[in-house]
Amino acid sequence: MLTVSNVGRIFPGGVEALRDTSLRLDESDFIALLGPSGCGKSTLLRLIAGLDQPTSGRMLWDGRPPAPGDIGFVFQDATLLPWSTAEDNVFLPLRLRGVSRSEAMPMVHAALHRVGLTGFETARPRALSGGMRMRVSIARALVTRPRLLLMDEPFAALDEFTRHKLQADLLDVWREAGCTVVFVTHSIYEAAFLARRVVLMTPRPGKIAREMTSALQPAAETRLDPAYAAFVAEISRAMQAALA
């Protein structure tokens, strides 16, 4: 379990990005951080990942600070090495941990298979579509078998068809991997489809305004379900109240 307790972040120059933010993530949870641009969603993700340090408060994973081995991170851009193949990009975090190539390749190929890229192991990023590059990025984050997967608007730049396909695939990966997911988005529709809990954040300084629990069982048909439309409307009303 990850607990975020009274976390604040003030940047040089006095810009207060987060104030008194508390959150609890259970094992195998899937939460969406939802809010307007600049509300501190990505800042909170970077603090959880250890890429930045809070000005106040603390974060604990099972009573200790999160370790790099606990965490996989997927950025908004795929951030792949353009000169490397898909399998070498996925191999990178294992190589940095001292895992030999011969030992790593079964894990690399399993991660690529999990995201639907079997047969593209030797392709370089320039030969892949935007959606496929993002799949490589997700495979790279999963190959170390993290307990916590952090995703910072990974589908924002994709077309709607590809975004819907990857959202459905992500849910399959999450169920199979059993990890906890924190997914940053500014899309109410995406949050409602993906997350078991939707966490609404206020404009800067970002604070948690409300948490909402989903009763949906997401599948390809979920977007046609009246319950999905009702949940989207509920989130929209709550977000309007948070922004008022």
Automatic annotation (TrEMBL):
ABC transporter domain residues: 2-228
Keywords: ATP-binding, Nucleotide-binding, Transport
One Pfam short name: ABC_tran
Secretion signal span: none
Transport among keywords: yes
One GO MF term attached to the UniProt entry: ATP hydrolysis activity
Family: Belongs to the ABC transporter superfamily.
PANTHER family referenced in this protein's UniProt entry, alphabetically: ALIPHATIC SULFONATES IMPORT ATP-BINDING PROTEIN SSUB 2, TAURINE IMPORT ATP-BINDING PROTEIN-RELATED
Name used for this protein in its record: ABC transporter ATP-binding protein
Organism encoding this protein: Rhodopila globiformis (Rhodopseudomonas globiformis)
Source species taxonomy: Bacteria, Pseudomonadati, Pseudomonadota, Alphaproteobacteria, Acetobacterales
